[in-house]
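ok so for the tutorial part 2 we go from a plain amino acid sequence to predicted structure tokens. step 1 is just haveing the sequence, like this:
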Amino acid sequence: MAEPLFLLADSAILGHLGVAQLAGAGLGMTVVHTVVGLMVFLAYATTPAVARRLGAGDVPGALSAGRDGVWLALLLGVVLALTGIVAAQPLTGWLGASGQVQAYAVSYVHGSLPGLPAMLMVLAATGVLRGLLDTRTPLLVAGVGFGLNIALNLVLVYGVGLGVVGSALGTSTAQGLMVAAYLVVLVPRLRRAGVRLAPSVMGVLGTARVGSWLMLRTLTLRAAIVATVTVATRAGAVTLAAHQLVFTMFSTLAFTLDALAIAAQALIGNELGAGDRAAVRALTRTLTGWGVGFGAVAGAALAAVAVVVAPLFTPDPAVQAAFTAGMWVLALAQPLCGYVFVLDGVLIGAGDARYLALAGVVTLLPYLPALAAVASLGTPDGAASVVPLWLAFGLVLMGARALTLGLRARTDAWLR
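step 2 — the prediction. this is what the tokens look like for a chain of 416 residues:
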């Protein structure tokens, strides 16, 4: 929960700068998180790969797979950071931003680029430790890192007066410190196991090949998110600002539920490495039950506090009203989200990346027309636009994902 709690705090910090700043930073965050989100395979491919080798008793092999994932993250991070220097302006314009909103969005993206390689290395290093069934170290690094991130952002945004750029620079600095902490933990483990620090070219290429399917799966999710942001952007600044706050809350709950999905990745991979299918089935039943149950509890809590929390994020009455309405829709979708996130983790842990990628493409078939229908309604900027937008996202998109994942889980094709 450390990262989404930081995002909530960061949204509150930026929300008090003004509607244009919040909307622009929200759009900039979408661009950066889209890039980082597409690279999440660095964690999702590394965790089960390390876990399967650990389950089979091959500790050096597990650490070698993790090492290659971290090197791949560094290489990709440098390339993407250099690309972002020239791509920020046209990307934000393509998403529908203009004027002050676009200027703030570009500023946020540029301020985030120095930390992009570190962000990707954090993903890979976290995946290594999860695969080794070590979740305490990532908890410590994330908690301290994001706590420091909030402090840095407060100082840079308000103390130094850097505004939106200060938020991005604070995040870049914190991510660099986090990856340094992970290397301090991982390098001695590699040396003790007799694993060299230099990468294996074949290992890096192998991680990239396995991750390509997971990247396609993530691409479909990010395409849905970016399409949603595009509709919100064209509806107006109030809708975009409120959507950013609702999506931040969605991300908070998604990351919280993802704790179960990450456990599924590591435990399912470990048991499949050991060849215990009965344990895999039992874990799947337990985890999906927890996912739906937690989603129901989280949804009820979200609906209860929706009106109370809105003023914490923005002083603007119109954004508050739209944010509250979107929160109620999000609350309704939480049990479905819990089911989806957990089964996603189960199938990632089983290495069923090809099916996940193709299923992701299928889920866009009902969602994009639903989103187009929302855009064609021509509702006024504000709550009237946010509600149908989140009905489409929370029920149509998540419903399609639940159907494709649930049908797969009922078969034996993924048990390998």
